[in-house]
Predict the structure.
Amino acid sequence: MNPYFFCQQERPENPYTAVVFPFFGAGASKVIPWSKTFLDAGINLYPVQYAKRETRFQDEEDESIPALAKNLVDANQALFQRDGLILYARCYGLLPAYETLKYMKQTLRKEPALFVVSAGLVPEDENVFAGADPDTDGDALTTILLEHGFTDQAQLADPDFTGFYLPGLRADYRMMAKYHCDPDPFIPDCPLLVLYGSEEDTIYRQLLKKWERYSHTSVTQHEIAGPHLFETPDNIGEVVQLICDTLDQQYK
């Protein structure tokens, strides 16, 4: 299944499989600490590996986010045709996850059992770089990343960070800058679970209400104690339980 998966964890008897789309600049290894909790709950774990990081450091990023979705599904059709599939999107990962769901519907005539959005707004609001110049680089790009809180001066002064993490941030920026939302968005048929941190401000919470129209089946929102990227080893069990409860309500 390479190059998109390298640290997947599964048990043959598990009825569900979660394909996880990491947040801006992150690699698949960020999800590895979740493995046992997901596996014990009956959910296999497949974190997506984007280009320009970890095992794909030398790979060029896909031409666009829709191209990433197409290439991911085409290279792993057996995985995306599984019953009990869950798409789990973290923050920016919402964009490739949403496009993957669209492409599954178009080509496989199939949707996941559940679409989970963690710390993500609807596509038109999540893309903070919409309309930006995808060719921006060097100091100009660094300034943009600083302004949006994706890095800080201490990290930029660290050669390990600039050598190992900055290429992934740069690649994800280019992908987002080229991404355009459809004015008539695709609305999935599958249920949607939206999770957000308790420390989000009032404006962010108001924007979350837009998710209410993004499923023809059901939309459930739930607050988790913590910041924007709220998943920790201490609360991932709560997150998994919410996923299991939502699946039980829909299918049992």
The first helix runs from residue 35 to 40. The chain has a mean pLDDT of 95. The longest strand covers residues 16-21. The radius of gyration is 17 Å.
